[in-house]
Amino acid sequence: MVMLELVQKFNDAHRYMNHADAHKAASIIMNSIKEALVSCRKVELRGFGTFSIRERKARIGRNPKTGKAVKIPSMKTPFFKAGKLLTKFVNSD
After folding, report:
1. pTM, whole model, 2 decimals?
2. Domain containing 56 — which CATH number?
3. CA 45 to CA 29: how far, in whole Å?
4. Total structural domains within the chain
5. Mind listing the pLDDT tens digit for each residue in 16-29?
6. Domain range holding 63?
7. pLDDT tens column, 50-90
8. Which of 19, 64, 70, 82 could hold 86 in an S-S bridge, CB 3.0 to 4.6 Å?
9. SS3 for 5-68, per residue?
10. Closest of 7, 5, 8 to residue 26, by C-alpha
């Protein structure tokens, strides 16, 4: 699903919203999640899942083309863990 499809779902579910308002609502939600993750806070959406930040340690990797050792710095990466209800819904046939 892309942002345009999400906006269309908002629009379909809430007929009183025009396309611009639906886009604004979706953007507010996405930006709120991004801002929380940037400040290393966890975002929990009950029944859906949890977004958090995980820190990857610095390590030595290999350049696949040359085989030469390369230093990979530590970094923060976003992590998503699906909630029980989402997992149950996805696995139901």
Report:
1. 0.76
2. 4.10.520.10
3. 11
4. 1
5. 888 898 899 889 99
6. 3-91
7. 999 999 999 999 999 999 999 999 999 999 999 999 999 99
8. 82
9. HHHHHHHHHCCCCCHHHHHHHHHHHHHHHHHHHHCCCCEEECCCEEEEEEEECCEEEECCCCCC
10. 7
